Amino acid sequence: MEKITTTTLASNQEKRNREKLFDLYQKNPLPGEEVTSNSALFLKRQELSKILFFNELYQQIQSIHGIIIEFGCRWGQNLITLNNLRAIYEPYNYNRKILGFDTFEGFKNTDVKDGVDSIIKEGSLGVTGNYEVYLEQLLQVHENECPLSHIEKNKLIKGDAPISLKKYLEDNPQALIAFAWFDFDLYKPTLDCLNLIKPYLTKGAVLGFDELNDPKFPGETLALREFADLNSLKIQRNKFSGMQSYVVMD
Questions:
Q1: Domain tally, the chain
Q2: Which site in 12, 52, 99, 234 is 20 to 30 Å from 136, CA atoms measured?
Q3: What DSSP designation does 230 have?
Q4: Do 30 and 116 fall within a single domain?
Q5: Residue 67's closest CA among 33, 108, 98?
Q6: Arithmetic mean of pLDDT, 178-182
Q7: pLDDT at 55 over 70
């Protein structure tokens, strides 16, 4: 398998423990048809905390009309989580489309404002080749478990997100955005997409961020600072972990 550049805060002991968990996953004795039904056996605290966070955010936007966008969806676990939350909280809201933007090739066109950490380079945090094809199949399988599955409610958009987003908004002038999740990690695409979606945000819409106040990825914070006066924003953190945060537009 091709090597993918990633980053982690895990200690050596935690890394060894995760290797053991992965080994146990690969060697699990469960019958094949029961593996996905018992996926929580291999769900770490960190991943569960993010699911709980998205659950909290989804409840906040439930009464807000509009679509959901993830900027930087990578492997797509957040998209799957959001799809399933939609099925739980508003199973017949076929208007709540979920879009995922990504290059599916890792970082592109990094900026000096993105800092000097070794992870800030072309191609970092990429995925395996043609992964978006596999992810589209996964999304469809999950959507098939939901009501009104014959109506397409999930969409992946591959490419340079600011360019792709501009075209999407031009093609869909009716769009309202209820929730936008930013996980680009980088300055320029974050700022460009914030500026593009601004006219489509209504009062009560939520902007979520994966790396605000993160010394490894200063670009995301700098982009938000250029987009809005931080003194006017109430930036609330994920109470289940130390990183993710969100802003409710008012």
A1: 2
A2: 52
A3: G
A4: no
A5: 98
A6: 99
A7: yes
CA pair distance 145, 194, nearest whole angstrom: 33
Are 147 and 203 within one domain? Answer: yes
Domain that holds residue 55: 45-248
Average pLDDT of span 38-67 = 97
Question: Which DSSP symbol is given to 242?
Answer: S
Terminal C-alpha separation, the chain: 46
pLDDT at 223 over 60: yes
Report the CATH number at residue 165. Answer: 3.40.50.150
Q: Round to whole Å and give the CA distance between 69 and 167.
A: 14
Q: Does residue 67 register a pLDDT over 70? A: yes
Structure tokens at 185: 């990690």
CB 106 within 8 A of CB 122: yes
The helix/strand/coil state of 138 is helix
Instruction: Tell me what pLDDT residue 6 has.
Output: 86
Determine the Cα–Cα distance for residues 179 and 65; give it in Å rounded to an integer: 10
In a domain, 2, yes or no: no
pTM for the structure as a whole? 0.95
Say if residue 32 is in the same domain as residue 74.
Answer: no
Residue 111 C-alpha from the chain's centroid = 21
Average pLDDT of span 35-56: 96
Of 83, 73, 225, the C-alpha closest to 159 is 73
Token digits of residue 80: 């799957």
| Residue 21 DSSP SS3 | helix
Residue 2: predicted pLDDT? 62
The pLDDT of residue 183: 98
Q: How many other CB atoms are found less than 10 A from the CB of residue 203?
A: 8
